[in-house]
Amino acid sequence: MWTKDKSLFLSRILTLTAAGVCIFVAFFIPTIAEWYHYMMTVEVAGILDRDTMELPMCITLYLCDALALAALWNLHILLRNISRDEVFIPKNTSCLRRISWICMAAGAALIIFGLWSSIFAFIGMVAIMFGLIMRVLKNVFEKAVEIKSENDFTI
Question: What is the 3-state secondary structure (H, E, C) of the chain?
Fold first, then answer.
């Protein structure tokens, strides 16, 4: 039988796994950039010359990898609080706020790299959209924290 505790445990395991994958991938970013430059020549080029794309791609991927680790750390804190039955607290709202800004920052970096490879501009727009969704979720959580606080002080 699938329970909420098992689901929460799975979420925490997947978060740690994703962090491990981010750390692992960081070691291969230059190789990935080189492979992408030589193998993906059929993709529609961006505004800037593709021959100069390897260094900007490495910088973008390292930045996005660091941002992903920061987002996963905030998600880990959020899941840890939920496992302690601390759901509607200001700390969780802060985690959601940071995750939303991290997604938007990653999206901005990807859109800038889209000048070299246009598919990254699309991925950047998706990341920014996800950041906006997280922002709305943060606002809902913030309101719930406010309502909970009012209810706690009501006799």
Answer: CCCHHHHHHHHHHHHHHHHHHHHHHHCCHHHHHHHHHHHCCCCCECCCCHHHCHHHHHHHHHHHHHHHHHHHHHHHHHHHHHHCCCCCCHHHHHHHHHHHHHHHHHHHHHHHHCCCEHHHHHHHHHHHHHHHHHHHHHHHHHHHHHHHHHHHHCC
- β-bridge partners, 45: 117
Which residue, chain included where needed, has tokens 């993709």?
43
- pLDDT for the residue numbered 11: 96
pTM of the complete model = 0.90
